[in-house]
Design brief:
114 residues; Nucleoside Triphosphate Pyrophosphohydrolase; 2 strands; NUDIX_hydrolase_dom; 8-oxo-7,8-dihydrodeoxyguanosine triphosphate pyrophosphatase activity; NUDIX_hydrolase-like_dom_sf; Nudix hydrolase domain-containing protein
Length: 114
């Protein structure tokens, strides 16, 4: 939860860093989790011009596997984040961060069967 919205972790790139490197580093910095099998799912380009503070988000959605399934996320940046929880994709709490909300509304499924 950040600014009253449910969001995934977010991180800025270091120059020359791949999506996978940024995702692994960022998740480790924010949660302490170690991941493997990191893969790009999709990228969104979201313009929010009809809001009090217009914004533009390019969001990179990645998927990975925990190196240790028993790991529990830690809140390593409590000044930025209220905490971490696991949710079923079909039962996410509201309100969602705008790009994530749009992905859900558009029917995106990060865990397709088959």
């Amino acid at each position: 939860m950040e600014n009253g919205m449910v969001t995934l972790f977010k991180r800025c790139f270091v120059a020359g860093e791949s999506f996978e490197e940024c995702g692994s580093r960022g998740l480790k910095e924010e949660t302490g989790l170690d991941i493997a099998q990191v893969e790009l799912l999709t990228v969104t380009n979201n313009l929010f011009l009809e809001v009090p503070k217009p914004s533009h988000y390019v969001t990179v959605f990645m998927r990975a596997v925990l190196e240790d399934p028993q790991q529990v996320p830690q809140n390593l940046e409590p000044h930025k984040c209220d905490g971490w929880d696991w949710y079923d994709w079909d039962n996410l709490p509201k309100p969602l961060f705008w790009p994530l909300e749009k992905m859900v509304q558009d029917g995106f499924d990060p865990f397709p069967i088959g």
